[in-house]
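Figure 2 data, in text form.
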Amino acid sequence: MPRYSTAYVADIEVRERHRAPNPDKVAALAESMGAIGLQQPISVYWPEEGRVVLVAGLHRLEAAKVLGWTEIHVIEVEMDDVDRELWEIDENLIRADLTPTEEGEHLKRRKELWEMREVRVGQLGSSGDRDERGRFTPEQEQPEGFASEASDVVGKSKRTVNRAIERAKKVAPEVRDAIRGTELDTGVNLDELAKMEPAEQQKAVKTAKARGSRTVTPEAPKGDGGYRSIMYAYAHAGPGAREQFHVWLVTVKQVDFSKYSELA
């Protein structure tokens, strides 16, 4: 059972986090905590006598520092490293306004931790069921139960959870960092970037930023006559625009539409 107590704010160690504190959120929390106090204690653990380490509640801790508090209410949690990190991730997924990039990264890491925990308790295969790179074999690539559990945590469908994880897997870390928190940090853009190779992802983001665009588009290969640009526009057009394009192909260009299954 968790124990409730207090700790000195200055003594609480903050180790590497999944998310940096948002100054606006810290300011808003400081205003709220100054008016009505701390409604939810932060989570900590004591690795040894005289040391206290934060598990979850970084924004509340930073707000307490802004307010000049010397002590803060805490919940002492007795968990191992895997469960403590899961606690932090779940609190971020539930409480924080994560961007699509951050949500995908959190869910991807959550899946990795979930697999570690399930192996530990014997629900998944051991390391002998993994390939030479430490990944689960194909039949265990998506452990049964993870998407359902994560779906319950974030309040989104299993399909949405799996799609967010795929974005985090396929979009290069440096590209995620480049769009994090910007107007390019959207699900649509992440899906488009996930279709590209890392070098192409970087070019697409650099081009979008240079143009002040809110969308990323793949660079058309030299000599393709703009084919990929046309296909990108078609893929993102609405039903009405597509219908007009079909009519133009048939009536103006006299194209035998049945030959072009890619446009169907």
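Caption note: Residues 3-78 form a domain with the Conserved hypothetical protein from pyrococcus furiosus pfu- 392566-001, ParB domain fold (CATH 3.90.1530.10).
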